[in-house]
Specification:
The chain is built from 2 helices and 8 strands, in the order E-H-E-E-E-E-H-E-E-E. It is an alpha/beta fold and 133 residues long. Helix 1 packs antiparallel against helix 2 (81-93).
Length: 133
């Protein structure tokens, strides 16, 4: 695991695991992530080679409806700007909605290239590449 990552995992809620996996399988594949663990009610995604799930999609454990956090989003690293573009396109093609088209965000830093989407449950996601073109 990279020392620059300080979290164990990220979890987003869903009210429909089947719909969520139809969204996340192709969208996270654009960033090199695949389904690494699953049950009937939740899935975990990870990157090769270790494949440890670090991104989980689950119905809330308290049994209440999944809702989104205002001001909350999950930013996922992309190796290239093309991967950011592919992430955004895949999200829109699989039931997501646009929250910010791919492009430079120089107010963060000169090479910050990102895109924002919402999944079918309304969770806000971002793919970001920090490398120069």
């Amino acid at each position: 695991m990279s020392e620059s990552v300080f979290f164990s995992h990220v979890t987003v809620g869903t009210n429909d695991i089947s719909r969520a996996t139809q969204f996340y399988d192709p969208v996270l594949a654009t960033l090199g992530c695949t389904r690494r663990y699953e049950t009937e009610t939740y899935v975990g995604y990870g990157r090769a080679p270790d494949g440890e799930p670090a991104f989980w999609v689950v119905p809330p454990f308290d049994g209440k409806a999944a809702t989104v956090g205002n001001g909350t989003h999950v930013a996922l690293n992309a190796a290239t700007r093309a991967a950011v573009d592919a992430f955004h396109a895949a999200a829109l093609a699989h039931g997501g909605s646009d929250e910010g088209e791919p492009g430079l965000r120089p107010h963060y830093h000169a090479d910050y290239y990102g895109a924002y989407v919402r999944d079918p449950d309304g969770n806000k996601l971002q793919a970001v590449c920090h490398a120069p073109e």
